[in-house]
Design a protein that fits this description.
By secondary structure, this protein is an all-alpha fold. The protein folds into two domains: 2-139, no CATH class; 141-171. It has helices spanning 2-8, 22-47, 50-53, 55-60, 62-75, 77-83, 89-99, 104-139, 141-170; strands at residues 16-17, 20-21. The chain has a two-stranded antiparallel ribbon. β1 (16-17) and β2 (20-21) form a beta hairpin. α8 (104-139) crosses α9. It is flat, with a radius of gyration of 22 Å. Residues 21-125 form the VTT domain. It is found in: Cell membrane. This is VTT domain-containing protein.
Length: 181
């Protein structure tokens, strides 16, 4: 059964993509992400407030953008590093940092450190998790199916709890009190 797993996906130490070792693909991905973060910063810096009126800005909403602005204003370059680990923040913070014109040298250092830490952890971590699950599936399909079901239930529960909290926090209180008889 172990050879079935090896034919499906190689171990993390022997993995390759397009004939390139996984570590090299990860390095290229990290450099590309660093480049994208620099483009986002300069687009934000160049467009300034116009960016908030764009489709992206309108879709995100001014309130959400203002929350990101507060994070950037308070934490500066540390927020840039931390945004790699927060899914939606990773996509909005770089251009907001440009609009707010935080120090570019600090921004570049923080985004480089973010790429150096987040990209390898994500690439190798996800690859190892997938490889581990396929190894489990090759040994015991029932255990792999059970693991997948448990993971799906945990994710669904987290999503539902988050949605309920969001609804509660955005729900307006009833301003009209019902008269008591």
């Amino acid at each position: 059964m172990g050879t079935l797993t090896a034919s499906l996906i190689p171990s993390p130490t022997q993995a390759s993509l397009f004939g390139l070792p996984l570590w090299l693909v990860t390095l290229v991905g990290g450099v590309a992400l660093f480049g994208a973060f620099q483009v986002y910063y300069w687009v934000g810096r160049r467009l300034g407030e116009k960016l908030y009126e764009s489709r992206v800005g309108a879709r995100l909403g001014r309130e959400r953008i203002q929350k990101v602005e507060k994070v950037v204003a308070r934490w500066g370059a540390l927020a840039v590093y931390a945004c790699f680990w927060v899914p939606m923040l990773r996509h909005t913070l770089p251009w907001v940092a440009g609009v707010l014109r935080i120090s570019y040298p600090w921004y570049a250092v923080a985004s480089a450190l973010g790429c150096l830490t987040w990209v390898p952890v994500t690439a190798f971590g996800l690859y190892a998790a997938i490889w581990g699950w396929l190894t489990l599936a090759a040994r015991s399909p029932l255990a792999a199916a059970g693991t997948a079901v448990v993971l799906a239930v945990v994710i669904a529960t987290l999503v539902l709890v988050r949605r309920r909290r969001r609804r509660r926090s955005t729900a307006e209180p009833d301003l009209v009190a019902s008269p008591r008889a």
